[in-house]
Design a protein that fits this description.
With about 260 residues, the chain is an all-alpha fold. Helix content is about 70%, strand content about 0%. Helix 1 crosses helix 2, helix 4 packs parallel to helix 8 and helix 8 packs antiparallel against helix 9. It is globular, with a radius of gyration of 20 Å. The termini are far apart.
């Protein structure tokens, strides 16, 4: 089996990032500069889930299309990470013979091989990250380095909560599979040390949140260190996806249902 050269892998990484979170990071930096040159960051607002049409079912269509197409880079990454030998083994293996190679899902631990343990770890991680994040957001607002964040500005329809849940899952899968699982695999093949790989992954995670201000950049970078470090220990991305999804579901759905009631909307 031919092993891709480092040069080819670097090009692959640039393509993946250019189609996904690297592109988001570039836009985020530009948006931050735009906000900073308009008014103090404390007066800025960052809206995470916007309505895209005043017509209910067109808005639903746009929301679902955004979610679907945002996950295409994940499929690309899973394709890149799957051994070509695995595909051959699957075609040639007899009944009960899984071959000696692994799919991308097995490599990343992005499967349901241990649902109970993954769920418990995900819930624990969500609590570990979520509670300090609230304090960091409040501190960032007080220091004037964080914009006001509106997790959802969708109109109230029957599909609003399901779409917000799907959006949360989309963000979780996209970020954890690419920023942690895929990048740590590729950085390792570049010959990078584990601390350097974790640092690069974490800075990228923080950078595509810069449009929200410097507080979210710091908070997400710290979250990235914790998640990436745990991944190097477990080689399972599923607990990270669960934790991330839970954090976003609480933020998106909670704000949509209760934000206005507590004077946040």
């Amino acid at each position: 089996m031919l092993v891709p050269s480092r040069r080819r892998l670097r090009l692959e990484v640039w393509i993946v990032l250019g189609l996904s979170l690297g592109q988001s990071a570039v836009y985020s930096v530009v948006q931050l500069l735009d906000k900073m040159t308009r008014a103090p960051l404390a007066e800025g607002t960052s809206t995470l889930n916007r309505s895209q049409s005043t017509r209910e079912y067109f808005d639903l269509t746009y929301q679902l299309l955004d979610i679907i197409f945002a996950l295409v880079p994940v499929l690309l990454v899973l394709y890149f990470l799957t051994d070509q030998r695995f595909l051959t083994d699957q075609r040639q293996a007899g009944p009960g013979d899984a071959g000696n190679s692994r799919s991308a899902f097995q490599k990343l631990g992005f499967n349901f091989a241990r649902p109970g343990k993954d769920l418990l770890q995900g819930i624990g991680l969500a609590a570990l990250i979520g509670i300090p994040s609230l304090g960091l957001y409040a501190a960032g607002r007080a220091l004037g380095i964080t914009t006001a964040i509106i997790p959802s500005a969708l109109d109230a329809y029957w599909w609003t909560v399901p779409v917000l849940i799907l959006s949360a899952i989309r963000h979780a899968v996209l970020e954890e599979v690419i920023v942690v699982g895929y990048l740590l695999d590729r950085f390792g093949k570049f010959g990078w040390s584990t601390p350097l790989a974790i640092a690069a992954s974490s800075v990228l995670r923080g950078s595509y949140h810069l449009y929200q201000g410097f507080g979210p950049f710091i908070g997400n970078a710290v979250m990235g260190v914790v998640f990436a470090w745990l991944y190097t220990r477990t080689r399972r991305v599923m607990p990270l996806v669960i934790a991330h999804a839970l954090l976003d579901i609480v933020a998106f759905v909670g704000f949509s249902l209760f934000g206005k009631a507590v004077g946040l909307g």
